[in-house]
Amino acid sequence: MYSYNAEYRRLFEGVIDNAVTEFPRTLALRIDLRYPPDYAYDRSNREITRFIESLKARLYTDTDRKAQRWGRRLSHRLRYIWVREFGGVRQRKHYHLVLLLNKDIYHTAGRFNGEDSLAGMIQQAWCSALGLRAERYACLVHFPEKGAMYLCYNSADYTAQRAVLVMRLDYLAKDHTKDYHDGYRSVGTSR
């Protein structure tokens, strides 16, 4: 049985509430970001910061393109939760994330080999953050099975939808894979 970080749980719920307040129809997408076996990472979180900034820029460009194509104004904001973990036999650093997006624009990850899909933009952003070619290293982004969830604030099922997402986020709040003593944050969220 795992122990869970109660402060992380509170942070996660705040991000969810902010997302559905702005976008009553929200996509919550779970992803994992890994490093190549020979990648010389340090213990800081520079790569995840670069990833978030790169993904924001890609989403901004994509949303503008869709607004022109669809002939209407679109509003988006990337909300996110990330946790840094060390796991496996070799205790390799990796990240688990939940991305929260306007479901009226992004309703699935899309094609995993499509440059213009949400999945493709995520893969490109992670590879860009690491300084690697996406054609070769896109596989460093893992999309868990059943990793997409929908929150529809105005739905009669909203309370149940939210409860299921919060329960799934417990995986990110588990203590045993975190390093709380290395001087770097093990969690980050959008504001």
UniProtKB/TrEMBL annotation:
Q: Which InterPro entries match?
A: YagK_YfjJ_C (IPR057271)
**Residue ranges occupied by any YagK/YfjJ C-terminal domain in the UniProt entry:** 20-190
Q: What is this protein called?
A: Inovirus Gp2 family protein
**Which organism is this entry from?**
bacterium 19GA11TI05
Query: What does the record give as the organism's lineage?
Result: Bacteria
